[in-house]
């Protein structure tokens, strides 16, 4: 693995895909002035920027003022594409089928007693009584997962974007490994929290697979993409992109998946790389 300062950026960069928490955002959940300037410079140079995050669209206000051009963001680990120019309206959804989610709930309850669940719908999150509460979502329904996932008529309910599973005692990576062994053939499992909190999506749904679809619509190849991330939910994206950087604060799985490494999120690691890409463009005379 090479660092941001000793590995040249690819000759052609058409799209930058960046995670938010632990990557683009500082630990206080702000975007630094340096990063804001770097994002604007990338767009000015003709490079599209996609925010690719585990966050739901309703939590994207932290970066909505920094979206240029297309205005799109990939949310909920690839389960939704949102238009931030339209207030986070979902324009594409890749749902987790409720029957599959119920099956996963039953499997994890048996494999890891004490697991509690939350259900992230296209309209908001709902959770079980013992699940760590979401203070940002005061209107959530509190009920057992089986009730939250039930619908009177199949196909009539609001789409499920992802299922969340929390365990108070298991180590985060151990819980992820157990879940993948238990039900990995039925859904996609990942995590981005420092706690034992799993994020469960439909089969084949990930940041990478939805990013690939968005790039295909634009005629952009993986070789023309530079990606940034820090946690296991970024691994597929870091592996898929032609050039990728794990943050200096990244989880070992992200470090292993990336082709390069930049500085920490607190040191504006994404901006460091973007500035170099822009500088290389100017030096070669290829800037738009």
From TrEMBL:
The record's annotation in Pfam families points to:
Hydrolase_3
Q: Show the stretches that span the lipid bilayer.
A: none
| Molecular function via GO | hydrolase activity
Query: Would you say which domain of life the source belongs to?
Result: Bacteria
As given in the record, the signal peptide range reads: none
Q: Which InterPro entries does the UniProt entry name for this protein?
A: Cof (IPR000150), HAD-like_sf (IPR036412), HAD-SF_hydro_IIB (IPR006379), HAD_sf (IPR023214)
Write out the entry's keywords from A to Z.
Hydrolase
Q: What is this protein called?
A: Cof-type HAD-IIB family hydrolase
């Amino acid at each position: 693995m090479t660092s941001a300062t000793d590995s040249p950026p690819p000759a052609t960069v058409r799209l930058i895909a960046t995670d938010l928490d632990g990557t683009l955002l500082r630990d206080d959940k702000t975007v630094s002035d340096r990063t804001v300037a770097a994002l604007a410079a990338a767009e000015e140079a003709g490079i599209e920027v996609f925010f690719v995050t585990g966050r739901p669209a309703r939590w994207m206000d932290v970066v909505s003022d920094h979206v240029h051009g297309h205005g799109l963001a990939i949310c909920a680990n690839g389960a939704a594409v949102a238009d931030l120019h339209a207030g986070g309206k979902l324009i594409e959804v890749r749902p987790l089928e409720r029957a599959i989610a119920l099956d996963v709930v039953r499997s994890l309850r048996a494999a890891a007693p004490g697991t509690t669940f939350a259900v992230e719908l296209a309209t908001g999150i709902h959770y079980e009584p013992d699940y760590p509460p979401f203070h940002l979502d005061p209107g959530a329904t509190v009920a057992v997962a089986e009730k939250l996932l039930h619908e009177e008529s199949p196909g009539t309910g609001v789409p499920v974007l992802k299922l969340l599973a929390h365990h108070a005692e298991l180590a985060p990576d151990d819980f992820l490994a157990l879940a993948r062994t238990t039900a990995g053939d039925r859904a996609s499992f990942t995590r981005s929290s420092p706690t034992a909190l799993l994020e469960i999506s439909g089969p084949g749904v990930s940041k990478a697979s939805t990013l690939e679809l968005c790039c295909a619509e634009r005629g952009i190849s993986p070789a023309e993409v530079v990606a940034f991330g820090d946690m296991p939910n970024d691994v597929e994206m870091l592996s898929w992109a032609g050039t990728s950087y794990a943050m200096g604060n990244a989880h070992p799985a992200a470090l292993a998946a990336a082709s390069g490494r930049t500085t920490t999120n607190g040191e504006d690691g994404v901006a460091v790389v973007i500035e170099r890409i822009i500088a290389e463009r100017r030096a070669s005379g290829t800037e738009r």
